[in-house]
Amino acid sequence: MAQSSPLSTAHQSLNAKMAEFAGWEMPIFYQGIVAEHQAVRSAVGVFDISHMGQLIVAGANAPSWLDSMLTNDIQQLTEDGQGQYTLMLNEAGGVIDDLIIYREAADRFFLVINASKIAEDHQWLTSHLPDGMALQNLSEAYGGLAVQGPEAVALWEKLDTGCPLPERNGIARDTDFIVCRTGYTGEDGYELFAPVADIGTWWQRILDAGAAPCGLGARDTLRLEKGFPLNGNDLDSVHTPLEAGLGFFTKLKKSAVDFVGRSALEAQQEAGLKERLVAISLLGKAPPPRHDYDVLTADGKTKIGQLSSGSLSPTLGKGIGMAYLPADYAKIGTKVQIGIRQRTFEAEVVKKPFV
Fold it and tell me: 3-52+140-225 falls under which CATH superfamily?
């Protein structure tokens, strides 16, 4: 049975269309995906992200241990309040999870992880946890909201919290809440985490300040337009960050410590990538592409992959998607066909982001 968000009643009062996502019953849309997408691109929207997980890692050797478990370089977080995007890999270099890690103190780090990966991440880290290191799973204690859009900062000022927004990719902790500034839409914004008992009050305050309620449907179209990968779709335990185009966040040469999956990535890099995650744009009029639709050669005769993500882009007014394709077909400008409902439609590999 799906878990309910602490904001479930609030969503129902707004006539949200609800559906199961990552084991949670979450709002897919309120007014409609396109309207909510446009609200975030032009003004400001708020998303319920209470399903996402929060972990605390603490200990004198926390930086070096986290460097052994994650792909990015924790040593680059030289000051309290800084954060970075990073990935957790298995021994074969496949992605367990992509996450944001924030330094709250030299020996304390706050991790925001994907909803479907909370139990797996916690178990994986616990299985590698050394003596003297503490790992807390606070996921059930917090509710979360993501405020996104060009007017997000002005909305924060209206809330008059007394807590300045952190810099991009930063974190600030107040007595009653935590605010992070990362986002997943390509727009400015922040994530507010507060005790479950308080998150409903924050939701209403943010709505009253002018944010449009937005569901997971718009969150998906917004991130796809920017070419951001979704864990479980574009990221999985088989494909590596190098294949996914996330080499910037994978520091193979960080000298502090070895990390899980590093040797597999080095071997893959030396051998050359056999496939890559590419952006694909439909050409001409076509139905919206969806996850798992076939990608075919330009003549439509040979299947070369499947869409890992696909949707209609509200900004561009056409279908867009991503797929892992063999290296020979991953070059920008390569023509392909997308199979949609027993028909094929012309498409092209394009540069990310779409927008």
Answer: Probable tRNA modification gtpase trme; domain 1 (3.30.1360.120)
Tell me how far apart the alpha carbons of residues 134 and 56 are, in angstroms, rounded to a whole number: 8
Closest CA to 239 of 88, 93, 124, 97: 93
pLDDT band at 211 (very low <50, low <70, confident <90, very high): very high
Question: Residue 110 and residue 180: Cα distance in Å, rounded?
Answer: 10
Q: Cite the residue boundaries of each domain of the chain with CATH code 2.40.30.110.
A: 274-350
CA distance 71 to 214: 32
The 10s digit of each residue's pLDDT in 38-48 is 999 999 999 99
- pTM of the predicted protein model: 0.96
Give the C-alpha distances (Å, rounded to integers) separating 288 from 89, 209, 213, 319.
32, 34, 24, 5
What CA–CA distance (Å, rounded) separates 263 from 250? 12
Q: Which residue has the tokens 């597999």?
A: 264
What burial class does residue 22 get, using C-beta atoms within 10 Å of its C-beta: 0-12 exposed, 13-18 middle, 19+ buried?
A: middle
Q: How far is Cα 32 from Cα 30, in angstroms, rounded to an integer?
A: 6
CA dihedral 143, 51, 242, 324 (to 10 degrees): -150
User: What is the structure's pLDDT at 256?
Assistant: 64
Task: Please check whether residue 205 is in contact with residue 159, taking contact to mean a CB–CB distance below 8 angstroms.
Answer: yes
CATH code reported for the domain at 274-350: 2.40.30.110
Distance CA(281)–CA(346), nearest Å, equals: 9
